[in-house]
Amino acid sequence: MTKRLSRVMGSFLVLILLSSCWDAVNIEERGFIIGMAIDLSEDGKKDGEYQLTLTNQFAVPPGLGTPSQGGSGGDKGFMNISSSGTSLYAIAQDLANQTNKMPFFEHLKVVIVSEEVAAIPELFANVMDVFIRNRDTRRGIKVIIAKGKAMDILNIQPENEQVPARYINKILENSLSKTGEMKPVKVGDIHEFLLLRNSFVLSEVSSDGTKLHFEGGSVYKGSDNKVIGSLNKQDMLGYELITGQAVQGPIVFTYKDKLTAYSIREANSKVKIKVTDPENIDIHVTIKLEGEIQETFGKVIIQDKGVIQALEKEISNKVTEIANQSIEKAQQEIGADIFNFSENLHRHHYKIWKKINQDWDHGENYFSKSNINVTVKTEVRSDGVVDESKNKTIEE
Amino acid sequence: MKSFKNGDEKISVNELMIAIPSMVIGVGILSLPRVIAVETIGSDGWIALAIAGIATVLMVWLMAKLAASFPHQPFFSYASLIVSKPVAKVMTFIFAILFIGVAAYDIRVLGHTSQQYLFDHTPVEVVSLSFLLVVVYAVAGSRAGLFRLNMLFLPLIIFILLFVLVVNLKWIDVSNLLPVFKTDIKGYLKAVHTSSLSYIGISIVLFYMAFVDRPHKAPKAAMIGMSIPIILYILGYLFCIMVFGHAATSHLLFPTIDLAKRVELPGAILERIEAVFFVVWTMGVFTTTVMAFDIAILALRSVFKRIKKMTLVLFLSPTMYYLSMVPNDSSQITIFGDILGNITVIFSFTTTIVLIVIAKIRGVGSNDKKTK
Question: Do B121 and A23 touch (CB under 8 A)?
Fold first, then answer.
């Protein structure tokens, strides 16, 4: 009898423990959030706390029909919902109540923060905290700054893609092959920068309703805890070349007064810092470029002796100029170590770094006082498939 | 309950070799890179892991050597030979209590972490209880079955861990390893101490040696077994530093999980590799908990010879469950783990050394070696 009873009890226990899951959420009931935009609410500051507006972009699967089916019938593939409040988490919960779906953050791809929010001290870091802390959000989420309202970026109506956030994500991924547009910064990177109180650059975008435009970069200064300036596209190119990001794309320069386009295939940079005492910091940046001539308005015959060398020299001069401009802007105008030289000091000159860590790009400001030299080594690999595309006599 | 008929209670040397890494790889692997990184600078943490690792390998060798000089004798009987019966009783009893603590700690951490990452609404008590029931099922059966389970699980665990590392190759930045050798002595000592806590559980050698069929080959096998987790830990640590940088690693609660989450391979299935990672981690914790439970039973039964195995299982599992629910929040769990780890390390190291020294002085055990 007891044996039978224990068997029955055992079966019930198994039934209870194995039959269902506390946390089961059917996939139809999940709201997949793929993009988020964070703005300052129109109420501005209330009771000493900034009022934020959070816009979530949900993917709406019925609108995402495959093109061949053509059955999507004008449905939008996404839905934007906004709400305001002080704590992002509270707003997100509030938004969850407005839809019939459980918000699900694991597929979140991009977070767009408006420049207003980023310019208020501490606020950007506080906003990022949610994304760093939450276990559902990945460290690979891309973060960009919006010129104007961040909400508008999520309302872009791209012609070939149904979901704006996906479109933005794709563009950010492809931007690697263009100059002046930067690698998107990810939540994980921001976590590191914020921990080390380093300065960094976020890409800045704007929209015209159907397309995304790169405006350049926003400089976040670690010691001020806010965005304090911006870089234009030219500065961004210099910044990318100096930091050795995988830049690919054209550099336009003049050779014998004619426009010529050089395309970078491979770029890398080496930073060497020579330092004896904090007052004398010499930073040598060597940029190496490899690429080919893509277009010329003049006549370039590379087979001629010395032409390649002359071209290389022109390109080097042009690039040095660009890099020096960025450096000057960073050192004098903005006063923030966007090139992350402090990390290099930390790694290679630990003792000195410990001394000047607190006064690097603020306080004593050793960064602005340091000497930065740029050397550029250019190689022109080829000039396309022809040596001459037009007859010389027409030109002259 | 009838015991498993074909389960022959002898284990091979290889099974012992596998049991050690199965025991060592447990709950600690998730937070290990952080706790090491906070004490050190740059990538120096691996040195601490290696030093503590070498010390532990040596310790394992000593334990195996000690146990092998009394072939086929359980811990209690050779300890009684060396340091009289009452002292041996106390030692065995303390070991049993420590292993009960280890099992309870593992049950709680598993419940806590799964609740954090996997089940939002399921109470931690329920997760832990379900886990404990599976553990009880495994312990109630034959001991040889446990060793076969280890043989089955460990290759999978190692494979998935290495896979997570390999797919992260895309994200590594070797320059994150700099600066090197900048930690001061104090930092190293602290880190060595912390890393030694992640190698606890090796004292299973003292107990399981009685079942090994060819004890004289065991010390070498035990050392090889012990080096597996050390290599895995060092690799995992270096990858965390290279992927996240030192600063972020020292502030991520579970860097190893984030390493698994960092993976973004084309094809949506591999975007959630942390799910697979959680599965193997649970397997790792499972083998640890089961062996800790088993040792506790083994130790108690050698002291109280008349108690049946099943009675002990039925008495110990509620005790463990109660113990595991004592800490209230994550910080108390950490304190629980730290205290337990420290006591276990100190107690098993001193016991082993004391036993070896006294055995040498009194000349016990040497006879057995000669007759072999």
Answer: yes
Collect all residues with Cβ–Cβ distance below 8 Å to A147 and sequence separation of at least 6: A115, A204, A205, A206, A215
A chain contacts of residue B133, beta-carbon cutoff 8 Å: 17
Hey, where are the domains in chain B?
13-366
- CATH code that applies to domain B13-366: 1.20.1740.10
Q: What are the start and end residues of each CATH 3.30.300.210 domain in chain A? A: 233-396
**A196 CA: distance to closest CA in chain B (Å):** 7
pLDDT per position as a tens digit, A252-299: 888 777 788 888 878 888 888 887 777 778 888 888 888 887 777 766
pLDDT tens per residue across span B277-311:
888 999 999 999 999 999 999 999 888 888 888 88
Query: Binning pLDDT at 50, 70 and 90, where does residue B249 land?
Result: confident
The correct CATH number of A233-396 out of 3.30.300.210, 3.10.560.10, 3.30.70.20, 3.40.190.10 is 3.30.300.210
Q: What is the pLDDT of residue B103?
A: 93
Supply the pTM of this predicted model.
0.81
Which ipTM was obtained for this model? 0.73
Task: For chains A and B, count residue pairs whose Cβ atoms are closer than 8 Å.
Answer: 48
**Cβ–Cβ contact A12 with B under 8 A:** no
Q: Is A27 on the interface with B (CB under 8 A)?
A: no
H/E element, A277? strand A258-277
Q: Which residues of A touch B272 (CB under 8 A)?
A: 106
Residue B158's pLDDT is what?
92
Give the distance from residue B90's alpha carbon to the nearest chain A alpha carbon, in angstroms: 37
Please indicate whether, in this complex, the C-beta atoms of B248 and A21 are within 8 angstroms of each other.
no
Q: Do B182 and A138 touch (CB under 8 A)?
A: no
A170–chain B Cβ distance below 8 A for any pair: no
pLDDT digit string, tens, across residues B54-111? 999 999 999 998 888 888 888 888 888 888 888 999 999 999 999 999 999 999 999 9
